[in-house]
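Sequence, please.
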């Protein structure tokens, strides 16, 4: 569990801290005061498996350590959004969908989302993020994922 938590939660925390000076500089050098991805943003790759309210596909894969690490990442995202807002940095958590990858498709169930669909969707979501979405948890189609 410690290794998974380090990768999925501590890593993004340390990256955010390390890049904060550059993000602040980017935000200060961009026109306008509104938060958006073109200005400065931290987008944490989460998973609906980290949703405490939804507990997505529990019977398919319980993977408690992964779920806990993603729930912690979601809290980190919310904290970053509150702490970095005044610096002009947008922060959001993004769920790529249940994607056909080595990790996502390693069972009898085939994930419904192809990699290219997920990437195209996430890019569309990123291009539309604004100040009102800072601190939110969204999926690859722009729908809000319950915390």
């Amino acid at each position: 569990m410690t290794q998974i938590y380090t990768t999925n939660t501590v890593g993004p925390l340390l990256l955010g801290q390390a890049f904060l000076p550059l993000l602040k500089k980017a935000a200060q050098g961009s026109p306008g005061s509104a938060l958006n991805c073109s200005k400065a943003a931290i987008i944490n790759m989460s998973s609906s498996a980290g949703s405490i309210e939804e507990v997505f596909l529990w019977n398919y894969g319980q993977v408690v350590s992964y779920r806990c690490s993603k729930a912690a990442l979601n809290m980190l995202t919310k904290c970053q959004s509150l702490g970095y807002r005044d610096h002009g940095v947008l922060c959001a958590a993004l769920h790529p969908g249940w994607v056909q990858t080595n990790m996502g498709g390693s069972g009898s169930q085939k994930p419904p989302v192809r990699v290219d669909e997920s990437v195209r969707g996430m890019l569309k979501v990123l291009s539309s993020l604004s100040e009102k979405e800072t601190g939110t948890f969204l999926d690859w189609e722009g729908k809000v994922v319950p915390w």
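The beta strands are 41-45, 90-95, 137-139.
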